[in-house]
Amino acid sequence: MSSAIQEQERERELGHDEFDPIGTLALIGIYFLILASMWLFMYFVEFLGNGPTVVGMI
Amino acid sequence: MNIHRYEKLWLVAALVLIVGFIATITYGSVGLGIAMIDDEAETVNPEKLNEHEDFGEPGVKQVGENEYEVYVRAWQFGFDPGSVEAGLDPIEVPANSTVTFYITSEDVIHSFSVVGTNINTMAIPGEVSSVTVEFDEPGEYGILCAEYCGAGHHTMEGKIIVHPEDEYAINGTDVETGNDTTDETEA
Amino acid sequence: MGAYIDHFPREAKLIRSAFYTSFIMLALGGIFGVIQTLHRTDVVRFIDSADYYTVLTAHGVFMVIAFTIFFLVGMFTWAVTTSLERPLEDMSFSWLWFLMMTVGAVITGVTILLGFVESVDVSADVLFTFYAPLQAHPLFYIGLVLFVIGTWLAGADWFRSWWAWKRENPDERIPLPTFMVLTTMIMWYIATLAIAVSILAFLLPWSLGIFDHVNPLLTRTLFWFFGHPIVYFWLMPAYMMWYLLLPKFAGGRLFSDPLARVVFILFLLLSTPVGIHHQYMDPGIAEGFKFIVMTNTMFLLLPSFLTAFTVVASIEHGARQRGGDGYFSWLKSLPWREPAFTGMALAGLMFAAGGFSGMINAGMNINYLVHNTLWVPGHFHLTVGTAVALSFMAGSYWLIPQMTGRRLASKPIALLQVVLWFVGMTFMANSMHRSGLIGIPRRTAEPQYQGFEFEAALGSVSELNAQLAIGATLLFLSLTLFLWNMLITAFNKSAESPGENVIPTPLSGPDDSPAVLDNMKLWTAIAVVLVILAYTLPLASIVSRGGLLGRGGDAFPVSIDYLALFAQVALESAAGLV
Fold it and tell me: For chain C, what are the domain ranges?
């Protein structure tokens, strides 16, 4: 993986202001949805459905 | 600081997730009353458990109408009571009861983990884990040690039997208290 | 400019030695890993179940103490010398710390392996966590102490380079790679203080027979004081690769240097005051302390969340410079044929999944569901077992040619290797997480019981075991391919320029961030205050309940009184002389 190869493959030079990471935002948005829904599933279905559970002293 | 607006958006979303997680756990504690094992129980001397008022004779004790206390000693490699394989009694309680387990270890660190439930605690020599649970339904549960405790760790297991309310008599002796049928006893 | 070895031939030799040592440790750890998986799943059982725990101790210690940290010291030496553009100050000092780490690792490793030899009364079947009253032979603890002191000296070496550089460049910002090394090492110094106290004040004297007993909850808590930050010690070299090398491989530049600094500072501050989250199920610690630690832990997610964005954006920048476009189709423009890139990208993807199971572990009461089940090893085989290990292996495909000046033996096999690791770990992690949810315990030679069975909601226990065994086999195969490739590369006659040892400049550079980020004294002070706040009351309570040295109880296996033994031997030989 020499840098010469990388230079060849580079089609354009993008600076900080010309680059909007919209693809990253899209990917991480999907990750957010997965995390939120999996958390709810794990807590309310897997955990609370796994009783008996330890409760406070009565 | 030069932070891209998408990154700021993600920062907010990440904080929402974090606060959401903490809120869920808090709801479980405050809203549903799920308690953590804590430092309420008094410490014991693991060398002198035989002289201890409760751990000297571990087992099930009735303390209220539907309330029971169970003192359990974990050792290499079993639970007393619980380890049927080692010739000891299983832990027997009635359904519709509130049971507080007091668990300690007489040697190394063990765990008291009831399979298929959220009853799961460490048993640390010198410390006592107090765990209160409501058993609503009759049934049988396996107990295992989930903390490595020595060469025979994988043989350390036990049993909890939750009897139908009308068939239960303390000390686990098979006293028929109602006009139940044999079928129900088997179940 | 040229390869690393052209600029720093002496340092390259040291780094090579560290990497090769780490690979040997990885090989040993891998062998023990596959043996124990096939044993516990009851596929092949050729060892006694009592020896399973020796195997497990060896797997844990070789992998997460030796493999990871030997690689780390090589990686950090590369980062400091490359970014400060100066050689190490004194090579004999550098070889001293490397030697010390090696001697320590060998002593501890041999002590563990002697557990297989029944005729020798030396063993350390105490697992990676060595919870008292389980007791190891004193040499186990002595080896660990030497190893840790070696890492302390290594850190001193890098600080020394930085101080020398600072005298010559008083007004410059700390280069990012060095910044990452310094913050990580400060975290490590704080964390290892606890394990030093635990071993030197309690466990070692106890194993020598000076004390009769220790307070098991105290030494356990001190272990986790160290035991949580160590996971970030494993992880930071991988993060460093994702920040510094992955954008380069993708043909882009790091998106934000300032945020990378913020991330490493957050790790320094939050890694340590969270250890009690490993003890949610412990008696003797109040619920309030557990709750505080949980909030700290949840906020520790933040630097990883920020990293996910910055690193993916840097990769996307590379893809777009290579002509990629669209919301998702830019992914196709990435250099997927490059093993170094693909390996790290897959490692990052698995870390995203491991992040999720980590969130569950962090949740205080939901821990009842997963504590000490196979879920937990499922989690850390995604994090340290893939995010870290796979990044290290992928990074080696670039780093080893840099350190040797030799061409990588086979790129296609390297590519196959990283993909195979990913596939193998998918099976293994899937099986472990699901097994954990039905209550199958971790650290168990035979998770098959007399009085009950595990009930799988989906599939069956034998299907879960089959997945675990297949996963372990694929991982072992992948590991073999990696080691073979490294071995051939090390002796490769074909000396080809491995490319330039250059880290591309970030899109948003350090000048965009406030100078206070580089104030190491300030961040150290805050980190120490946070640790004091998090630990003073729990530790005081544990000591006042159970005593500094505990209230009683024997060591297991029942300890030999070494001092008495020495005295006896000395007396007998003196008598013989007379």
Answer: 4-577
DSSP state at residue C360: H
Cβ–Cβ under 8 Å, residues B41 and B125: no
At what angle are helices B5-26 and C287-299 packed, to 10 degrees?
160
- Please check whether residues B156 and B119 belong to one and the same domain: yes
Answer yes or no: is pLDDT of B184 > 50.
Answer: no
What's the rounded Cα separation, in Å, for the pair C382 and C357?
A: 9
List the CATH code of the domain at C4-577: 1.20.210.10
Residue C147's identity, in one-letter code, is: F
Q: Indicate if B67 and B144 belong to the same structural domain.
A: yes
Nearest CA in chain B to C360: B21
pLDDT tens column, B103-127: 999 999 999 999 999 999 999 999 9
Structure tokens at C8: 């720093």
Tens of pLDDT, residue by residue over C92-116, are: 999 999 999 999 999 999 999 999 9
Q: Residues B81, B127: one domain?
A: yes
Specify the pLDDT at position C492: 85
- Residue B138 within any structural domain of the chain: yes
Domain enclosing residue B133, as ranges: 46-174
Most B CBs within 10 Å: which of C56, C309, C356, C376, as the mutation test of the B interface? C309
Cross-chain Cβ contact C360/A22 below 8 Å = no
Contact C101, C69 (CB under 8 A): yes
Residues of C labelled catalytic = 228, 232, 379-381, 442-443
- Which residue in the set B24, B33, B121 is minimally distant from A43, CB to CB? B24
**Do the domain assignments include residue B162?**
yes
B14, B28, B127 ranked by CB distance to C365: nearest: B28
Please tell me the distance in Å from A58's CA to the nearest CA on chain C.
Answer: 17
Q: Which tokens is B63 given? A: 């303390």
pTM more than 0.80: yes
Q: What is the dihedral of CA B49, B51, B55, B58, to 10 degrees?
A: 120
pLDDT value, residue B35: 95
ipTM at complex level: 0.93
Nearest-CB residue to B36 (from C287, C451, C546): C287
| Cβ–Cβ gap B25/C50 under 8 Å | no
Q: Which residue of C has its CA nearest to A9?
A: C322
